[in-house]
Specification:
Layout (H helix, E strand, L loop, with lengths): L2 H7 L2 H4 L3 H20 L5 H14 L6 H13 L3 H17 L36 E7 L7 H9 L9 E7 L2 H10 L3 E7 L11 H8 L11 H11 L4 E6 L3 H5 L9 E4 L4 H16 L2 H10 L15 H4 L5 H7 L1 H5 L18 H13 L3 E5 L3 H12 L5 E5 L4 H10 L2 E5 L3 E2 L4 E2 L4 H13 L6 E7 L6 E3 L1 H11 L4 E5 L17 H12 L2 H14 L5 H6 L12 E6 L1 H4 L7 E7 L6 H11 L6 H38 L3 H4 L1 E2 L2 H4 L19 H10 L2 E3 L3 E5 L7 H12 L10 E5 L6 H41 L28 H7 L6 E4 L4 H9 L10 E3 L14 H9 L4 E3 L7 E4 L1 H21 L1
Parallel strand pairs: 1-2, 1-3, 3-4, 4-5, 7-8, 7-11, 11-13, 13-14
Antiparallel strand pairs: 6-15, 9-10, 12-17, 14-15, 16-18, 18-19, 20-23, 21-22
Helix pairs in contact: 3-4, 3-6, 4-5, 5-6, 8-10, 13-27, 17-27, 18-19, 18-26, 19-33, 20-21, 21-22, 27-32
Length: about 900
Amino acid sequence: MSKDTKNQDGRIDQFFSGPGARADNWRDLVDAAKAWSRSPGDHARFDALLAQLAVTEEYHGYPGPHLMAALKESASSDDATGTSSLAVRITQALQTRSFRQHADVWNLHDEGEGTAPDLLPPSFGRMEAHRPYFETLIVTGVPATNWSTLCAEWRRLRRPIDSFIYEPVFVGSFEDAFCATILNPDIAAVVINEGFTFRSRHDAPVLRSLTASMDQQEDSDVSALKLAHVLKRVRPELDLYMVSNRRVEQLAGNPEADVVRRIFYSVEELLELHLAVLEGVQDRFDTPFFDNLKKYAQRPIGTFHALPIARGKSVFKSDWIRDMGEFYGPNLFLAESSATTGGLDSLLEPTGNIKVAQEKAARAFGADHVFFVTNGTSTSNKMAVQALLGPGDIAIVDRNCHKSHHYGMVLSGAQPLYVEAFPMTEYSMYGAVPLRTIKQALLNLKAENRLDRVKMLDLTNCTFDGHIYNTRRVMEECLAIKHDLIFLWDEAWFGFARFSPFLRPRTAMGAANDIDEWLHDPKSVAAYEKQRSELGANPSDEVLLETRLIPDPRQVRLRVYQTNSTHKSMSALRQGSMLFVKDVDFHTVEAQFHEAVFTHASTSPNQQLIGSLDVARRQMELEGYGLVENAMEIAFAIRQAVAANPLISKYFRILGADNMVPAQYRESGFIDYLSPGANWVMALRSLREDEFCLDPTRMTLVCGTAGFDGTQFKGILANRYGIQLNKTSRNSVLLQSNINNTRSDVAHLIRVLAEISGEIDRSLSHGGSNARKTFEARVRSLMTDVPDLPNFSHFHDSFRGDAGTKTNEGDIRSGFYAAYNAAGCEYIRLADAEIDRRLKNGPELVSANFVIPYPPGFPIMVPGQVITQETIDFMRKLDVKEIHGYDAAEGLKLVRPEALAKLGDSHSRMHGIKAAAE
């Protein structure tokens, strides 16, 4: 292997890459074959590429050993033309995915002659209904020389009546099974026989790098059951089957075997195993609600309920709105109904197929319970807050979280204790909340004997800009201070991460499952007792802040909730959301949750939305791993293309982890995914250890250096080039790759950036010194003269009647409803000198509502908050057009001082009455 090839083996993008990278490798092979054809006798490069490719191709069903052997034989016989032709055919089949449905691409010859009689049965490739294709990994101790015979036996099991078609892939070692599971997204099931070895028969660097992440030693347990646990941890969606020639009854009764779907005795008929594989995939393929909705749409239904659009007669018989029917097609209307019977179900109180669909979603996402929500994650968040918090409860909340969390506090009457994320002032955005800040808030509450009142920690993971918490560490350390703290993680943007083995541990459900496993490990108690002994009886707050705390596993009540905007990262219709529950005490709040559902969910939910949630779950369980790989691959392709293009990089750049995450939160020393010298081991260590990581699919593209503010550049991309973005900041836009993106999308984006960069270049070149000075001044105003980001100040004393002295929680509900008293409110324009006078001399300025500028998109004022000079300076420097809760013509809406005095008196009386009663 060449030095250059070896250097590439550790590149991070190689291991986050999906099918596109594999296709690139095949295209490189084709190019080498064509070059050989043009220069006969010179096939050293082709041989080297084929040798490298052959190692990982063993983990894929297609092209398989038959075609790979033919390719090698053709090359060894010095047949450049035949080799090139076969390489082209294989590459085209991979690119078009035609091998999944057409038998001819599996044949050695174009005309279909020469096919081994048992290679493909007649049922494969017939003109019949589409059958999804997948691959089944067979781990065996049988010598590789016998695999072709075994493969023929498996293929003969295929039947025309099977709903799916699959190709067996054979490996003979622990390491190869692990690598195949990582590298082949088409694998949907794994059959593990006994007798395999540990080491791969290959010594390729690409495999050594992968297996290093497995954390498994050759001299440790390499049993079939151990392999099952390793594979289930990597890809929990896979169906695992064990074949044993030992006491299968004893093995089946072992709790450790729960990761296996079914155990077979080795001498039993192979057909049963084949049917079990198909049944397992069918279980994931079934979409209870969507399947019934399709059946309902095909039935003749008489509708005498309040939904005229159902069945579509009022649309298709109309001369005036028929175009809507033609646009959407008849099925949309045939599947509409306000009924909850006749094969449908009630979202408010599901007992039928919606209930089963939610149970399948819980399995897919590692939760105990799932609620489908059709009003978006804004509703999911408010439901969770309302169900879990009551009046007077304290919740530690990221001040920069989505507004639905703040409104949830208003609805529940809970008192938010806002904590601040680290600022990224240069880019006018915030990061995430440091763990030390959270721990300090808990310790302050403990010092004032108020720890019993804090019920929840409410954080966003990942943040809009891609900051990922070390969720396990946050929860474990907080549980060490308060053992029954509830965690609400808003993962609106991060739902896809469940299907990446690299990102899953940093999701709420992934971390919760890891913590749950640790709690049941006998070693956990010893670890806790050891730390308790080291800390002593009364460690200082400073010691607790500096120590990575371990909770007492005997006391912990693990209560974790995660909200997920399914429509933001999966194939669900807009507003499709899910709420995940993993709470040992859920039975104590289940009734409250149902009340929250009744409060927020529509009694007329959209059937298509529910169906899309069901289908999104199906897709992610069956192909989510590969789709997420592709999303990461797209992101790395964009990052590389922007950085490598000399013209684009002159004016634009994508921020790396070193720009987005301060060094003190990157304890591993990790710099960025694509920085020089970065490798897989470093990235994995960062994902495991660092306080914050950066979601690779979220890319902050700095456009201020090109003279554009974020809103302006977003408009240019949308209006001139048809490229849609979501978030902007003062000097950047956020690009995010998802499971819908393709390499063509990347090409379009890069072409557009190159065109814009060229326009800037020509403008500066032709405009002379004045044009350059104007451009430099514009860049300076966007990149250097940026306003400081304001922190939350505190609630006015009128809304802190029962608050502590060290903490800044407040009664946001009273502040919110203070605005309903029109006579008790006043407006002062932002530029009015009265603002400055009152900031200097009083009385205090107190906000009567939420004020949320876009960007940055977080509330810089909340109801009842005292407004400071810092906040006013920030608002005066803002040059954004969209500010929710603020009308420039009227000014800031404030609570009048006299109204505050009355509120304060009222709160004092209520607090006195409550204290006397206690």
